[in-house]
Design goal:
Length: 209
């Protein structure tokens, strides 16, 4: 009956919905470097970004019943690979850390470990004259560590910032798109800083040469 349909819609509205925010790859190919050439040799790359997949909700009462799960670990790993592939002569992806003996057996000069430490999202509904909008921002925190055969060459933490605004959409569904855009922008900013840190490191460049 019509009354049952009304009750069902009301229950669903109160329970809220889940809108997944899938972040696209955002590698950085515009790395500011003091050097005109790639870092020579073979370098292993290990990326751990599982911490970047997390549940998210708005920071205001509006749309608070809805969830916006953020998914960016896979795109983060791809973005790191594409960014550093433009910085290093040769990159080989490995599934886990590799010690000095492992580096020598692979003929690698070192291993680059990049960890997505956390993403700090913020979502706020802004009322409008005709329609409400969703303002979002995201801070992406990552660490980059480079180890050579002789030990630690580089260790640095970077933060990338992203901002986006979009229509709130039906039942707050537009929030996922705005959140994904902000997180992607923040990830791209972090990629640029990771690339610059590695490319401009004299210790990394001169190690094992």
């Amino acid at each position: 009956t019509d009354m049952r349909r009304i009750i069902l819609v009301s229950v669903l509205a109160l329970a809220g919905c889940s809108y997944q925010a899938d972040v696209l790859e955002t590698p950085s190919f515009n790395v500011a470097s003091s050097y005109g050439e790639q870092i020579p040799g073979t370098w292993l790359l290990y990326v751990d970004a599982i911490n970047l997949d997390r549940p998210t909700q708005t920071n205001t009462m509006a749309c608070a019943a809805h969830k916006f799960p953020l998914r960016m670990s896979s795109s983060f790993a791809t973005s790191v690979h594409q960014t550093l592939d433009n910085v290093m002569d040769k990159i080989e992806i490995v599934p886990g850390p590799v010690n000095g003996a492992g580096l020598r057996s692979r003929g690698a000069r070192g291993i680059i470990t990049v960890r997505g430490e956390e993403v700090r999202p913020f979502m706020e509904v802004k009322p409008g004259f005709w329609a409400a909008s969703m303002e979002t921002r995201a801070t992406v925190v990552a660490t980059v560590i480079v180890d050579g055969n002789g030990g630690r060459l580089l260790g640095q933490t970077v933060e990338g910032q992203g901002f986006a605004t979009g229509d709130m959409g039906y039942a707050c569904s537009g929030g996922a798109k705005a959140l994904a855009q902000a997180a992607g922008q923040g990830m791209g900013d972090a990629m640029r800083k990771i690339g610059e840190a590695v490319s401009n490191s004299e210790r990394v460049r001169s190690s094992g040469v």
